[in-house]
Design brief:
- By secondary structure, the protein is an alpha+beta fold.
- It has a domain of 85 residues.
- It is built from 2 helices and 7 strands.
- The chain is rod-shaped.
- The mean pLDDT is 83.
Length: 125
């Protein structure tokens, strides 16, 4: 086996790997519906050159801020939902939905009114 047949593919692979870098990305609000209480967050990256690094916590904070601006108490990620991604001209865009929520507040407990004092003519028999 010729050494060139081994080294050329090896160096080509190394060159491709060297061009791919991890990049910190931030989720940003890209859509939503106030009356439905739904926020869409998204991020974009160059699919051939970047490996995105994301924070679920940052996404929740961003969604919560948007929901609070609409008068809601906070936001929750839809359970089990993975980001939906599409690619166009080498740019991948991924989106994920969050639900705005109202937090349950404890019911106010009002004490029962005290019984009226008994009048002398109302003495029990």
């Amino acid at each position: 086996m010729n050494i060139k047949t081994i080294l050329i593919p090896f160096f080509l692979c190394m060159a491709l790997v060297a061009c791919t870098t991890t990049v910190d990305k931030r989720w940003e609000a890209s859509g939503g519906n106030r009356s439905d209480g739904k926020i869409t967050l998204s991020y974009s990256y160059e699919r051939n050159y970047e490996i995105p690094v994301l924070s679920d916590e940052q996404a929740l904070v961003e969604a919560t801020h948007r929901c609070e601006a609409w008068g809601y108490d906070g936001a929750e990620a839809f359970s089990g939902q993975q980001p939906k991604c599409s690619t166009r001209s080498g740019i991948a865009t991924c989106a994920k939905d969050y639900q705005c929520v109202y937090r349950k507040t404890p019911a106010k407990i009002t004490p029962a009114p005290a019984p009226a004092p008994m009048q002398p003519s109302e003495t029990p028999k």
